[in-house]
Structures are given as C-alpha cells and as structure tokens.
Amino acid sequence: MRILCCLDGTNSEPLSKAAALFSSTEPLVYGLLYVIDIEPRKEIERTRERFLRHPSGPPGPRERQMRQAEQFSARDILDEGLRYFPGAETLRREGRPEREIVNCAAAWNADVVLILPRANYGEKPAIGPKSVGHVARFVLDHAPCPVFLVRPLIREQFPIAR
Amino acid sequence: MLLFFHLPALTRTLLISLIALLTLVGIMTRPFQWNEALIALAGAALLLVLGLIAPLDALLTLLHEWNTFLFFLGMMALSALAEEAGLFDWLAAQAARLAKNRASLLYLNIFLLGCLISMILSNDATALILTPVVYVLVTRLRLPVLPFLFACTFIADTASFLLPVSNPINIIITSRFPLDLFTFLRLLFLPSLVVIGINIGVFFLLYRRQLRGNFDLKRLPAPREAIQQPAYFRYTCAVLVLVAVAYVIASALQAPLSLVALSGALLLLLGALFWRRTALRELRGHISWPIFGFIAGMFILVQAVEGTGLTAQFGALLLHLSGNSSFGAVMIGTAGAAIGTNLINNVPMAVVLTSALHTVQHASLAVQHGFIAASIFGCDLGPNVTTVGSLATVLWLLILRQRGVDVSGLDYFKLGIVVTPLMLLAGALTIWLLVSI
Questions:
Q1: Residues of B in contact with A37 (CB under 8 A)
Q2: Which of B45, B56, B209, B414 is the Cys-Cys partner for A123 at CB 3.0 to 4.6 Å?
Q3: How far apart are CA B128 and CA A39, in angstroms?
Q4: Which residue of B has its CA nearest to A65?
Q5: What is residue A120's three-state secondary structure?
Q6: Would A36 be classed as within a structural domain?
Q7: Among the listed residues A27, A42, A37, A30, the one whose alpha carbon sits nearest the alpha carbon of residue A135
C-alpha cells in the first residue's frame, strides 16, 4: 500500500500518528511530499511590476539566495519527516501545493493521501467551515485516490449546537 | 508635420486628448507586454512629431523637473549600494534576533523595519529590496510567508509620507507645490502614524492564526554573515545616518532633496569602489533606467494636455466638487488621487494632479493645503487598494478567473480592498482635522 504524506513544515508528528493507524497485508510504502509554493514569489514579481521594474536578464544574487532558502527549508522539512517515517521516499515539487499534491498522488500511484486540514502554526484547533484550508479542500475534491484527512482531536468543543 | 500648419484650437485639443488617452490606456493594459516607458515615450514622441508640443517646451518641461529625475537616480543608487553592503540582510536578521523566537514579535519588527526603511530610503527600497530579504528570512524560519510579504508591500506605501523623501511621488508634488518641512510634518506625520497603526492592527487581526507560533533562530545564519566587508558596512551606516540628517535639514531649508540623495549615493559609491564591493557597471544594472523614460514621457504628455486647458478644468472641477471647503478638498483630493492611482499608475496620476492643482492656488490656504496633502496621501497610499498593480491587472485577473483559470492574485486584491479604504478614510479625516487647526 502506497501512502503519500503531505508535509507542510508543521505536521510531521500528527501525520506519523495517523499513519500508525494503517495496517495492511501488503507492505506499507510511505512517500513524503513537500511542495515549494511559488505563489509568494509571484507576489514579489507583481510588486516589482507595480513599481515598474520588469524582470530582465538572468537571475541575480538575491534570486539565487531566495532559491537557496527554499531548497534549505524543503530539505529541512523532509529530513524532519524522515525522522518520523524512517526509510520513506522523499518527493520534492515546486508549484501550487494543491495541484502538485494531486498530480504527484497520480504519478506516484498513491493508494491513499494523508493530509492535515491546514498548517498549524500554534493556534488552538477549531471546528467549523474554515477549519479545512484551501489546499486540503482542493485535494479532497481532486485527488485520484482516497484521502485521509487527519483532523485534530478536539472533543472539548462538543456537543455542537443542535 | 502639423507643426507647420495652423490647427484650430478644438482640433488640437482633441488630438492631444486622444494621444494622452491612448497612452494612458496603453500604460494600463501594456499590449504585447510593452514596457510602460516605451508607451509613454511613444505618446510624447507622437505629440512632438505632430507638432502638438514644441520641442523647446518639451525640453524646458524636462529641465524644470530635474529635481525629480535626480531624486529617482539618487534614491535607486542609495538603496542598491546599501543592499550591496548587506544592510537589509543585517537589519532583517536583527529583527529576527530581537523577536525572541516569537512569530508575532517578528511580524511587528518587520513592520517597524519597513517603516524605517521607507522613511529614509523610500517605499521603493522596502517593496523591492526588503521584501525578498524577508522572504528568505521567513522561508528559512519555516514561518508562513504571505503575511510577511504583505506586511512589506503594504507598509512600503503606508509609511511613505512620513518624510518628503519617503516616496518619489512626494518629490513630484512638492517640486510644484513646495511645502516646508514643518508644514509637511504638521499635515502628514500624524495621518502616517494613524494609517500605520491601522495597517499593523488589521494585519495582526487577519493573520492572528498564522502568527501564534515560535521559530528556531538557529535556522538562520548569524547576522554578521550578512556583512562581507565590515568596514564598508560601517561606512554605509555612517553615510546613511548623515543622509537622513541632511534630508531633514534640506527639507527644512526647502533645498533640493535630489542633491542630498545624489551626494549620499556618490559617497557610498566611492566607498564601494574603495572596498571593491561594486563596479560602476554593476551599479548601472541596479538602476531602472526605463523609469526615467516613463516619467519624461508623462511630463511631456501632461504638459501638452496642460496647454489645452484640460487639466485646469479638471482642477476647477475638483475645486467645485470640494465646495471650496477644507473638508471637501481633503476628501475629494484623497478619493480622486486614490481612484486615479488605481486606474493608471501613481506616477502619472501625481503628474496630472500637480498640473490640475494650479487652479486651486487662488483658494484659501486651508483648501490649498487640503488638496496638496490629500494628493500626496492618495497617490502614496492609493496603490494598496489594488495590491496586484493597477485596476487593469485586476480586471485581467477577473477575466482569467471567469475563463476557469484559478488566479490567486485576486485573493491579494481582496486584502487591499478591505484594508486600504479604511486607512484612506481614517487618514483623510486626520488630515482634515490638521488642516482645519
């Protein structure tokens, strides 16, 4: 069984706990996917255009520094993932995360995709319509295989109003 | 060549208006991805070829605006040389160090750093140099990137009327309507603080969930690694402090600020050459030369339109709409400037407004000050409404989305449309209160 785990830099531990729930007669093969989001860089380009600085010539030192930072961060996140999933295959992509995840799931022949509703930067988990971020929502809608949405344990917010 | 023929005034006005309109539409839509400078210069060249503006008038117009051109040059050179010294990287690293591993504190520090850089080195430096530096910083720290990028791009404009040098637009407007430093600060410093406060407060509210965490400072290299040549770095800091003081003195004496910017850039260049941190060729690459063509084209175009009396009529209309009151002047000036900057770009809008505002010189001082301060305020802050550029860009993104292409630029637009009108209203009301005192 091929399980694709979508890392975002904040979710290695909950993903590993969720993955421990899987048992199969076939061997479990884990893939750790991290996508370098290109949207922020597009935003920087848009700012440059607004200030009438259109891209010209080969990338300069700052551009190289930005790429290095992205690669450093991606490596760091995947290495952290490997501590929770020893021996897993690491997959690094660049683009819009939601699209890269579904495309990678198809290309890697994933049997199931493991994803958290949204990146957690320290806030208290909450239920409600905004508890699933746009990336997880897109993956749920477009994935080529079953998706295991790993919601946090938030029993204290129940019962909800009837 | 129509130069050699006599044209009736109406035909002349229509021709000039048509060329100006086509040029502005060209700047908005950028057909075939043409550079705005090319379009502005083509418009100006057409006016010259058709004899709709005399070459001598065009030349005199450009010579008259020497302060603006030289300020742009000095400002870009100063920022580029300060970047070469590693100043921006060092400041960003210090902002992270002082944040005590807390994302929210780092966010606040980035806002404050953006204010400082915009104030002294202009909004260009914050938006174009600090933003990529912050991107590198937060990517390495594994923090959410977009809130930090927006902090930089927004604060660049929000803090761009703290001083006359904080935005080249201020130079364009104050070159025609000189304001002494005291009046500039009296009218615009408090509104600056108000809108900066709103900007920071609203962004903290919007991004509170992403800013709750901590970061590990060990993921960053030590701040000193940003500095490759410590002697040049110290020299740069000293020169920039000198430039900041000189800016204040020159503003107080109403001396041309471009000379301060250029002198500072020259001092930094000498240091950079001495410590072999840059070469002239490299520095040339850091200067955006098409901007000069763009501004030159716009100045000639607006001069031709001014000759037809249209800008005077526009000014009279603004005055009429304001009801000749300081409240009306501030509100109409702010709204007009903000809408205009989002229809075209803030540079052409500032040039158009400076031409139109000649009409208000016969109004009371409060109305005059209201219009001038509101023009600066609206042209500086207005671009934040459409964070993705001009309204044309937004329309294009809307068309793309209708065609089924998922465009995230629109999400950024939503942020601007929510936050900026609030800042414009609060700032305009503060200016009105100050004008009325």
A1: 145
A2: B209
A3: 17
A4: B136
A5: coil
A6: yes
A7: A37
Q: Chain B contacts of A119, Cβ < 8 Å?
A: 144, 210
Q: Which residues of A touch B208 (CB under 8 A)?
A: 123
pTM: 0.89
Tell whether B351 is within 8 A of chain A (Cβ): no
Determine the residue of chain A that is closest to B168 in CA distance: A51
Given this model, what pLDDT does residue B412 score?
66
**Among B83, B281, B138, which Cα is nearest to A61's?**
B83
In this structure, is residue A162 part of a structural domain? Answer: no
Whole-number pLDDT of residue B201: 96
Question: Tell me, what's the pLDDT at B101?
Answer: 94
User: Which residue in this structure is represented by tokens 């937060």?
Assistant: B138
Give a yes or no: residue A145 inside a domain: yes
Cα distance between residue A80 and residue A82, in whole Å: 5
For residue B162, what pLDDT is reported? 96
pLDDT tens per residue, range A92-120? 999 999 999 999 999 999 999 999 999 98
A3 and A111 in contact (C-beta within 8 Å)? Answer: yes
For A68, name the nearest residue in chain B, comparing CA atoms only: B136
Q: Domains in chain A: how many in total?
A: 1
Predicted local distance difference test score (pLDDT) of residue B42: 96
Which of A8, A11, A45, A50 should one mutate to test binding to chain B, selecting the residue with the greatest count of B CBs within 10 A? A50
What ipTM did this prediction achieve? 0.89
Do B142 and A81 meet the contact criterion of CB atoms below 8 Å apart?
Answer: no
3 state SS of B345: coil
A95 touches chain B (CB under 8 A): no
For residue A130, what pLDDT band results from cuts at 50, 70 and 90? confident
Chain B residues in contact with A54 by the CB 8 A cut-off are 35, 290
* Chain pair A-B, CB pairs under 8 angstroms: 99
* CB–CB contact B139 A69 (8 Å): yes
In a domain, A65, yes or no: yes
Q: How far is A50 from chain B (nearest CA, A)?
A: 5
pLDDT reported for residue B342: 82
Pick the residue with more confidence: A26 or A133? A133
A83 touches chain B (CB under 8 A): no
- Alpha-carbon torsion angle B181, B186, B191, B196, nearest 10: 50
Which parts of chain B have pLDDT scores under 50?
407
Q: Does A65 touch chain B (CB under 8 A)?
A: yes
Residue numbers of the domain that contains A61: 2-157
The CATH code of the domain that includes A91 is: 3.40.50.620
pLDDT score at A97 = 95
Chain B CA closest to residue A120: B210
Q: Which two tokens stand for residue B293?
A: 């063509």
d(CA B43, CA B52): 11
Contact A85, A28 (CB under 8 A): no
**If 0-12 CB within 10 Å is exposed, 13-18 middle and 19+ buried, where does residue A125 land?**
middle
Inspect the interface and report whether the beta carbons of B409 and A46 lie closer than 8 Å.
Answer: yes
Contact criterion met (CB below 8 Å) for B112 and B99:
no
